[in-house]
Amino acid sequence: MTQLSAQxxxxxxxxxxxxxxxxxxFPEREVxxxxxxxxxxxxxxxxxxxxxxxxxxxxxxGGKVLLDGVDIYEPSVDPVGVRLRVGMVFQKPNPFPTMSxxxxxxxxxxxxxxxxxxPNGLVETSLRxxxxxxxxxxxxxxxxxxLSGGQQQRLCIARSLAMxxxxxLMDEPCSALDPGSTRRIEETILELKxxxxxxxxxxxxxxxxxxxxxxxxxxxxxxxxxxxxxxGSTDQVFNQPVDLRTNDYVNGHFx
Amino acid sequence: MEKVAAMPIDPTxxxxxxxxxxxxxxxxxGIVTIVLASTxxxxxxxxxxxxxxxxxxxxLFVFLPVQLLLGVLAGRxxxxxxxxxxxxxxxxxxxxxxxxxxxxxxxxWSVVERGSAALSWQFITQNNVYISGQTSLEYGGLGxxxxxxxxxxxxxxxxxxxxxxxxxxxxTETTGKTRSTVRTLIQALSGLPSVVAGLFxxxxxxxxxxxxxxxxxxxxxxxxxxxxxxxxxxxxxxxxVPQELRNGALALGSSAWKAxxxxxxxxxxxxxxxxxxxxxxxxxGETAPLLVTTFAANNTNLNLFDGxxxxxxxxxYTFIASNFDTAVQRAWGAAFVxxxxxxxxxxxARVLSRKKTAKKAGKK
Amino acid sequence: xxxxxxxxxxxxxxxxxxxxxxxxxxxxxxxxxxxxxIVLVSLIFIFLMWRSWPAFESQGVDYIFGSTWDNNPxxxxxxxxxxxxxxxLVSTIGVVLAVPMAISLAxxxxxxxxxxxxKIATVMVDLLAALPSVVLGLxxxxxxxxxxxxxxxxxxxxxGFIPIFDNSxxxxxxxxxxxxxxxxxxxxxxxxxxxxxxxSQLDRDLISASLALGAGRWSTFRRVILPTSGGGIVGxxxxxxxxxxxxxxxxxxxxxxxxxxxxFNILEDQGGSVASMILxxxxxxxxxxxxxxxxxxxxxFVVTLFVNMIASFIVxxxxxxxx
Lengths: 255, 364, 323
Hints:
Chain A: Pfam families: ABC_tran. Chain A is of the alpha/beta class and 255 residues long.
């Protein structure tokens, strides 16, 4: 049972307050979509969930992120351990250029100094889970950069899955991809949600509706810090939004 | 064959997009200017030969004025007053740039021409024992100096490369508080006069009686000269590694150390090797710091920790001021060997960086 | 919206402390290595100061401004005035000669040459920068000096009535003019590569806009390129100046070091250079005289450090994108 929740998250960069009082609960084995116009802090927020946030030099934080009831920002918590349990896929595909496809999948083990009984099996299962095994099974030794953009992104997903995370964070995983690749990644997400909790930032409203069961709408108005304007089931946020601004946004009136 | 002949050369250039790099498009007046720039020297050279003028004088007092005059006329003919100013600018730019080429070619050519005359198998293998400035070139050589240079540079490299790369890591991979101070000091070190670096080691070890002139002192004196080059180039190549790769590694649960070792460093590998090569190229010809720390020697010394060691630059230095022809030839030979070493390092660095950019371009 | 309380939200400490031992060792060794450069610069200063202090103490202010050097151990007089001025004079000549060449080269590479020529010229600049100064000294002494002496003689014949081109000895070799040329060859690549870097980072749209408005190359250069990149070029020139002031071996071969100030007769066969003087006197110097040479090293170090600091400050300011 893995439960992830954010309590009163506030974020600063230097003196600039960019996120205010975000409270979200991410239920187990569900997909939560974070939507909102550019610059509203959704990407910033998702990075607080696995302590990638603190890598930005001027970053500041208030509030708690609870993973199974433990605040991951407690001084006694090793960020490396957090990131092992909470995996992340980035906006731009970032396979390691000096490694082969196979080595990319296994890179997490090497980077985290873990051993695995059956590395070849792990490569296959991970690539299968990212639904790309059939495409690459004959050329596992090729450099990762020889793949297309969409394949590279799925390789990055496979790379994360090899570490068997409980939670997978996806920061606009399809924004750099063509519609076909986007489709396949969405299918992957729907399969994966049977096994893990997924948080996905997306600009694509249809995508949010297709893959998520609950949605949070972020908005930053006129230089104010970003806030969650509306949070509920995806159906409710898109079809019966309570807040007028949400209504405007999901119906394409701004952003 | 037939086919080529059948295809007439299209007189109009291939149409380029009008807005692509307009500053590089060479206008009609530009073409005329360049044609003048290339044909007039020939005429000037002939004129100079006929009149018996010195070449560089002909260049300055005949070639440049004629070129300017024609350029101005051409420029005015094609685009009025604006063309006139442009022609003058272009001609001066080409003239000054060509002067640099002439100087460089003069240096390289004189070293190659005179140095290769001195080179022989015996010259690059034997040492300098019992050799004076008058000894015929058939005896003795600079083998001991080649070995000495390699040893001294090797020791400097062993110390400086880890230090320089670690400093670059500190500058790029950490959020340390003293980063700007370190960067400034490295920049300041890059302007350190080489003789001062030598004096520093002399003051620290030799003047205080810790040692006599010795090989390792020379190696130490080269460290402050090599460090800034290695650090700067390494820093630049680490900065070129996209931040997303580091993030990708860290998000997989990597420690910072592993992320650097397995992801960032392999991605910057060719840049880091270039840093080492350029660092070695920077110090391989240094003379003054070695003169005040290890001095010169005639015998072959393989021990960096006992006695003076000969190096190529100090070998060159000891023969240069002599009036005897053979001594001067030895100096040229040494210069040629140094130049070859620099060229090897340089070409290796170029090939590496070319490979890197080619890979990037190919995979984009 | 609920009432917004202005009560400050607690900001947590986000010190990303390395957790594993390997990480701690990694960060520690990087920090240690980086801070060793601070130690290195301090050591250089401390040891040179320590060894040279006797000379500063015995010679006083005249060490800088006087112009006598007498190595009689009974009555040691060490004053580097002519050398210091000579360094400045030679470097100035070098900079004046190098600047047009370097800027032209950079302009040619960035704004005129096609990619292929530009690349060749860039490689050339790098190659010139990699030439060791002892090789340039050899070339300067045996190849260039006779040629440049010929130029000097001609300048004297044509313009000798102007004081700076006067020559009373009739000897045109080993003059500041020739040393300045050799120094110019050394610093052209430094200035050219900084300038090229700055030119190539200029806003292309700005230049296209200027050309599209019908401005020619010249007015674009004067009104668009120079104002935006002038600062950076000045910084590059200062970097070259720093290198010129510290140049040792090459000048040693092509300049006649004389302990009598040659204020501006650049064609006269007498001049000075602090760095070359150290090299010239080092071989035969006794212990006290070595202190005097160390002192010259300190002066040189301080001067070049100062010039370099200003230069890198200006260059950094002119390139805000390199942070």
